[in-house]
Design a protein that fits this description.
- The protein is built from 23 helices and eight strands.
- By secondary structure, it is mostly helical.
- Helix 6 runs antiparallel to helix 7 (172-188).
- It starts with a strand and ends in a 5-residue tail after the last helix.
Length: 462
C-alpha cells in the first residue's frame, strides 16, 4: 500500500516531498515542496502564514515573507495553477492559504475508503530524503537522489539527519549548524561517507570551498559511486582550486552516475564557457533548463551563459524570468545590467542599474544622477556609485575586488583596476574565470598589463 496523496493528475509523497504528474517527476525545490505537503495534508482548511513560517523558517529571517511568496509562486507553476482562479492553492488575503482540490490517499483509493486528513509529520529522515532531491549549490535536481545509509551509531545518525535537514537553507547560521552536526557525526563515525559529503556541501555553501575539498575527496575514496560527492568536488576544483582538467573528470563522473542532475549540467556549462566552447555551453544550459525550469538558480545561470555567448536578448529574458521566480536575485539583476550594456540599450541599462541601486538603498541624489543628459553619463554615474559602494565596505572579499576592478575599468582608472584584479587573483574568486569572455572588461584589454593577468590564470586550451 502506498502512502501518497492524489489530486487531479498529481501524486505527492509526504515522506520525500516528491511531486509527480501522470507518473512523471515535477521539479520542485525543497521549501515549496514542504509547504505543498503541509497544504495537502490539511486540504480544505486554512493554513496560516505563521504556521508555514514555523515549519519552513523556524528561526525567523528578515525576508521570509518574500521567500514565502516565491515558494507559493513555485507551487502554482509546478501545478499549472492560476492565482486568479485557483484549482489547487487558494489565497486567503493577509491570513494564509487553503488547498482547494479534493485529495485522496493512494492506499485509500485502492481500498475504496474515504480520504482522511492527518497532522503534518515530516520526520527527520523524510526531510533528508526531500533534501536529497535538491542540488547542492547551484540549483535543484530532477535526477534520482543518492542517499547513503545513515550512520549506525544512534547519536551519529541523529546528528547526520539534522545536518541533512539544514543543508538546503541559505541562512549562514543554519549552514553553520549543519556543519557542526556533520562534524559531530564524524566524531562518532569518522569514516561515514555521507557525513563527509554533507560536511563538504555545508562548507561549499558557506563560501569555504578550499576547506570543502578534503572531506569530499575522502568521501569519494570511501564511496566512489556517490554522484553528489563528485558533483560537489567538481565545483571545488573548478571555482576554487582552478584545476580545470580534474574538475572536468569529476563532472563527467557525476553525470555518468546521475544523468538527470540539472546542477551538474550547469557546472559543465561554466567549464565550457572558459574554453570558448559557447555552443556546447548553451546546449548544457538548455539541458539544465529542461530538467529544472522552475529553479531560479538555473534560470540565472542561463542568463550569464547566454550573455557570455553574445545572446544578449535571450540573456535578458532569462534574467527577467529569474526575477519572476526570485525578485531578490542579485545575480540576475547584475546579469541584466551587463546584458543591456552589451546591447548598447542605454535606457534599459539605466533601469537595470536603478534596480541594483535601490536594492542597496542608494541616496536620492545618486539615483537622480542616472537620469543625466544621456545614457553614457547616467551609466558613468552608476559605475562611480558602484566604486564608492565597494570602497566603503569594511572588508572586501575577492569577489568584491573583481567587481571594483570592473568599475574602475569602466571609469578609466586602470591602475586601480589592475590593483584590484591582483587582489581578486590572490583570493581566487570564481569571477576571474570569466576574464577572457566578459565584454565589460574591454577597456582593460588594451593595457600592456592585461596579457600578464591572463597568462597567470593558465586557462585551459579547450
Amino acid at each position: 500500500m502506498t502512502d501518497t496523496y492524489r489530486f487531479g493528475p498529481f501524486e505527492l509523497d509526504p515522506r520525500t516531498a516528491e511531486l509527480r504528474r501522470d507518473g512523471e517527476p515535477v521539479p520542485l525545490q525543497l521549501q515549496p515542496a514542504r509547504i505543498l505537503v503541509l497544504l495537502v495534508e490539511r486540504a480544505g482548511a486554512m493554513v496560516s502564514r505563521e504556521e508555514i513560517r514555523a515549519l519552513v523558517w523556524p528561526d525567523r529571517v528578515v525576508d521570509y515573507e518574500q521567500g514565502l511568496n516565491y515558494a507559493i509562486r513555485q507551487i502554482r507553476a509546478a501545478l499549472g495553477d492560476d492565482a486568479e482562479a485557483p484549482a489547487y492553492v487558494e489565497t486567503l488575503p493577509r491570513r494564509g492559504y487553503r488547498f482547494a482540490a479534493r485529495v485522496e490517499r493512494g492506499s485509500d483509493r485502492e481500498r475504496g475508503i474515504a480520504p482522511r486528513r492527518r497532522v503534518l509529520a515530516l520526520t527527520l529522515a523524510g526531510l533528508v530524503l526531500a533534501a536529497g532531491a535538491v542540488a547542492a549549490v547551484s540549483g535543484v535536481s530532477r535526477g534520482a537522489p543518492h542517499q547513503p545509509a545513515a550512520p549506525a551509531d544512534p547519536a551519529a545518525r541523529e546528528a547526520y539527519l539534522v545536518g541533512r535537514g539544514l543543508l538546503p537553507s541559505r541562512d549562514p547560521q543554519q549552514l553553520e549548524k549543519a556543519r557542526q552536526e556533520f562534524e559531530r557525526a564524524l566524531e562518532l563515525e569518522p569514516d561515514h561517507p555521507g557525513a563527509l559529503t554533507g560536511l563538504g556541501e555545508a562548507l561549499l555553501r558557506m563560501g569555504r570551498g578550499g576547506e570543502a575539498r578534503r572531506p569530499l575527496e575522502r568521501a569519494i575514496r570511501l564511496a566512489p559511486d556517490d554522484p553528489q560527492a563528485h558533483h560537489l568536488l567538481a565545483q571545488v576544483l573548478l571555482f576554487h582550486a582552478w584545476e580545470w582538467q580534474a574538475a572536468e573528470r569529476h563532472v563527467a563522473r557525476a553525470m555518468e552516475l546521475r544523468p538527470g542532475h540539472a546542477a551538474t549540467y550547469q557546472v559543465r556549462a561554466y567549464r565550457e564557457v572558459m574554453t570558448g566552447r559557447m555552443d556546447e555551453a548553451l546546449a548544457s544550459m538548455a539541458t539544465a533548463l529542461r530538467l529544472d525550469p522552475l529553479s531560479s538558480y538555473v534560470q540565472a545561470d542561463a542568463g550569464w551563459i547566454h550573455y557570455w555567448a553574445g545572446r544578449h536578448d535571450e540573456a535578458a529574458a532569462r534574467c527577467r524570468r529569474t526575477l519572476e521566480l526570485d525578485a531578490g536575485s542579485g545575480s540576475a539583476k547584475t546579469c541584466l545590467l551587463f546584458a543591456r550594456m552589451a546591447q548598447g540599450d542605454g535606457l534599459a541599462a539605466r533601469e537595470a542599474a536603478r534596480a541594483i541601486m535601490l536594492g542597496h538603498q542608494a541616496a536620492a541624489g545618486e539615483l537622480a544622477a542616472l537620469d543625466g543628459t544621456d545614457a553614457r553619463a547616467g551609466l558613468e554615474a552608476y559605475w562611480s556609485w558602484e566604486a564608492r559602494r565597494l570602497e566603503r565596505l569594511p572588508e572586501r572579499s575577492p569577489h568584491d575586488a573583481f567587481l571594483l576592478a570592473l568599475a574602475y575599468g569602466r571609469l578609466g582608472r586602470n591602475d586601480d583596476a589592475f590593483r584590484e584584479l591582483e587582489t581578486a587573483y590572490r583570493g581566487r574568486t570564481s569571477w576571474m574565470l570569466w576574464l577572457e569572455v566578459e565584454p565589460l572588461l574591454e577597456p582593460l584589454r588594451g593595457d600592456p598589463r592585461w596579457a600578464g593577468v591572463v597568462r597567470r590564470m593558465g586557462f585551459p586550451g579547450g
